[in-house]
Amino acid sequence: MKLLAIETSTPQCSVALAVDDVVYSLVSAERNTHTKVCLTMIDELLGQANIHLNEVDYFVTSKGPGSFTGLRIGISLMQGLALALDKKIIPLSSLQTLAYAAKPTSKNILALLDARKSEVYGGYFNDKLELLFPEFVLPVANLPNIDLANSLLVGSALTEYSAQLKQRFGNQLHYLELPYPDAPNLLALALQNMAQAVSACEFIPSYIRDNVTG
């Protein structure tokens, strides 16, 4: 089985390729350069694995939420490749991917990404990565009540809104320095969710915010 994943929902761009049990991956050190680096990184990984693009069985990408521009780049690229090669795409939540990267843990995971406009995108997952309530976009001060003693916070909001988060939750919340979802974890999560594969035309982004920019 061969899967190609790209993660472009944040300022970081990453690509991962699974060829059976071997995973190849690259992360761009430059922020917000997705258009410039995505195809080059894909070509490099295909070369490392010594396979052609048409040998890939599934494409994988984040459906959101996150940067509108970044998501459109990743989604459009994967839709184009899937259409051209008559393959399917596995769309996954960027927040669930971020939560997956925090495993293993027995705690619930609050994944928060900077949504600009003094807001955060959020998802609150149990230890099985099931949402405890729908993903949201909210100011930090309006974040829902959670089980502080049994929760772990991950995501870029930890840096961007550290003061507000401490004001909202105090010192009771546990933190993990894990700012962004990435392609290797997206790929690993996709392997557990193969049934979610859709055609390029069936792909539905999840922006959460109605008016999206950036």
Describe the protein's architecture and organization.
The structure is a single chain. With 214 residues, the protein is α/β, with parallel strands linked by helices. The protein folds into two domains: 2-93 and 181-202, 2-Layer Sandwich (Nucleotidyltransferase, domain 5), CATH 3.30.420.40; 95-175, ATPase, nucleotide binding domain (Nucleotidyltransferase, domain 5), CATH 3.30.420.40. It contains six helices and ten strands, in the order βββαβαβαββββααβα. The strands form two sheets. The chain has a five-stranded mixed β-sheet, sandwiched between helices. Strands 8-7-6-9-10 form a five-stranded mixed β-sheet. A hairpin with a 2-residue loop joins β2 and β3. The mean pLDDT is 94.
Could you tell me the strand content as a percent range? 25-35%
Largest sheet geometry: 5 strands, mixed
Write down the secondary-structure element order: EEEHEHEHEEEEHHEH
Strand-pairing-aware structural class = alpha/beta
Q: What is the β-strand count?
A: 10
Number of domains: 2
Number of continuous helical runs? 6
**CATH superfamily placement of the largest domain:** ATPase, nucleotide binding domain
